[in-house]
Please model this.
Amino acid sequence: MLCRIVVGLKQGVRDVLGERVARKIKNELGMDVQDVRIVNVFTLEGLSQEQVDLALERAALHDPVLHEVALKPLARDFDWIVEVGFRPGVTDNEGRTARETLGVALGLGKADLEEVKVYTSKQYLICADMNEADIQHVTKDLLANELIQRYEYKSAETWKSDPGFEAKAARVTGQASDEVVIIPLSTMSDQEMTDFSRANTLALSLREMHDIRSYYADPAVRAEREAMGMATDPTDAEIEVLAQTWSEHCKHKIFSAKISYENTETGKTTEYSSLYKTFIQGSTKQIRERNAATREGGDYCLSVFKDNAGVIGFSDTMNVCVKMETHNSPSALDPYGGALTGIVGVNRDPMGTGIGANLLCNTDVFCFADPFYEGELPPRLLHPRRVFEGVREGVEHGGNKSGIPTVNGSIVFDERYLGKPLVYCGTIGTMPVTVAGKPSHEKCAMPGDIIVMSGGRIGADGIHGATFSSEELHEGSPATAVQIGDPITQRKMYDFLMRARDRGLYNAITDNGAGGLSSSVGEMAEDSGGFDMDLAKAPLKYDGLKPWEILISEAQERMTMAVPPEKLDEFMALSEEMDVESTALGHYTESGKYLVRYGDKIVTCLDMEFLHNGVPQMELSAVWERPEFVKDEVPVPEDQGGLLKNMLGRLNICSKEYVVRQYDHEVQGKSAIKPMVGVKADGPSDAGVVRPEFGTDKGLVIAHGICPQFSDYDTYWMMANAIDEGIRNAVAVGGDVNYMAGCDNFCWCDPVQSESTPDGQYKLAQLVRANQALAHYCLGFGVPCVSGKDSMKNDYKGGGQKISIPPTVLFSVIGVIPDVNKCLTSDFKKDGDLVYVLGLTRPELGGSEVSQQLGFSNPDVPQVDLVSAKARYETVFAATQKGLITACHDCSDGGLGVALAEMCIGGRLGAEVDLSMVPTCGDMNVTSLLYSESASRFVVSVSSANKSAFEAIFAGQILACIGKVTDTPQLIVECADKTVLREDVDALAGAFKATLNW
Model:
């Protein structure tokens, strides 16, 4: 029996959520609306009428002070009513919580609660002069995502004669299945294999399909399979496992490829076998060896490129780990669910690093198209503002509800992110140096250990996530690739696993991310040499899943452990005590086999060696030809004050306070430098700083650099600038360049030459150049990469067009700070402080914000002078430790002019500066001086009493005092006795905040 419990606010209670929806209809859709109210609907299944009445009596699903509740419709006084609910199989977090609440309120045991289902939906009561087409527009473009939700609507007139909506259960119907299908690979033609790969979202190339077929044709493999009663052709599960394990997402095949790189500028051709091993892993290895030999304290890296996150030493008692992930493709289809899954998914990476890490903080960086986009949208793409809002809310719910602070981030805008947004989510964790007498960063699954899965159950959500993200987004991309994370379930699992860790109840742990059990168990079994697992024991959200679907599902909130047999009972007892579902699925072996059963039926039997090392190396060609750009004269507008305000309002410069304020950065009470700083806490911070251990003032800085605007010119300098910006931001708050670690996240458009990618050789050359710069600048700065990720198919094809993102690299930085009390912020502090520029300003306006604002072309992209930058960063740190600097801000987007304005805004103080004093190289007019984006520069303020000491510590370096801070809240800029601009700080703050003041 289905029963609907309807919950609405009592008359006189303000509907804040309804008001928010009304604002969205007005601001995002440009439609007039008088009022929106929200009614929640709980559709119950598996309860008797007496139990339903008791649930109402005990207020299980409502607050009797605020709500009215009924078993019949409550909606009234509206023009249109829209009901939105989930489609079958989509994760319903509120429904799960409601079900658990009913179990407590009604005193149901586990067996009885299994029979209860709760499906939630929302009714939107809209008061507006709209016709049916208008209400469809509101519903489809704001209230519901048809990929994962269903909706119905009625007018007030229809409601009068036919009140209410039919009770619907979003149940998945099906029966338990042990069906294993044999794939006739041995008889398929090349075209049939290609079609099969595409139709099943396998993302396997024809060469890979041939190698798989050859494996099964091997006489030894055939004989072994026949002896086990298996077909000589692969099972559906084996093909799926190979596709997942060999996917670009998991194997990073382009980064591992053999590449012939031709540089037409130099006339040289170079062969590289694996960009990853050559440039990323190679540079880190050199830095570690150098640090071990020459650095005081030696090598601080503990675990790099071999676990879910990179680990460095923080103190004698604590290590820290860092991981950044992307969740681009799912976020393009369902921004909320994709981003929520992205943040809770990356939370599990530190949880599965070493023997398990505590979660310290989150960081996030988003890349979107213009939220004010007014053009026609290609098929299946959502409006950029809807993507923006969905992603923001998803990360907010994932982080806030998990009790993890978000301490650093940024948002980048470019029209090409319309095809696929980039959603970078990162988590930093901490771990004791030793756990149960062993180093915390080490783990190993031993033969005989029990395979245990803990956390959520398995559903169809997330199937083909790994392979889906290994190809471009297209009109037929699968809906099942999208998951919706559940932060509450994950938090319970996390709390349980940290206790199990401290008790030494498991030998190894990893998360069920891309590829689900297939990946987590398969990777851990590399330690032991094999495994034997029974999928019939796996807990499912619903029946109807086939064995291969159970195996590769990426349903969220799951971790896999290797539990010694003698500790299994204690592990399972603790799991039950903490209300976390854990299931023993099999055991690790040393058989060399990837063996999966469903009851008595064999589902997969693969050689571990072939599965993990059998993927053929790609052979690719890259050709670099430098693009040409016109060099226009740099204009000098008469109204420089107006230009500065326009610059402050640009999307890539303006305040992101609207987003920052919705993320909790104070939970856990460890933040030292906040995302917003200054007297009104509305100035931008260069980086975040947290204090991981309460008993010490030692801090951890979290920063990042991202510069896709330079990719069109040369990805070498794009990467150099991203690395420089990440390190520079960390130094600006007090970081030590000699105690930092990096995390590189590449997001690229398809760089493989093909009919659909005719410029693949150029895009691959761009990738080569970015890697060359990474090795060069990481080695030069001495900052090793300890973790990273690549996402290589960030293209959209549909409606007869292809949209490719600009090559984008996020370079994240963590660093150890000896004393958080000496950290710096960007806001001017007091009247009379001297203002210095550190570093050289060049006429580098290629890709700059001012060139886009004024519409001129310039080929001169900023270049990074490594030697002077490294010396400057070391000296800024030394000056910071001596207390010689009162404020520090880096020059980045918008250059010197924007940096000065932001420092004034933060301190609500003025400044008088003379541009003729700025150290320059080359002939530069006022516009160039103010808005050049030359790298490695700071603006700092220094107490006049420390002038001599400050200049002495920087002796021999490029710097100049260009003015002073004033208590008159005006920014006054002169150039050789001529006033360039004079603007009130409040006016600058208004321009800075207005663009995204939603």
Residues 466-471, 473-481 have pLDDT under 50 and may be disordered. The radius of gyration is 29 Å.
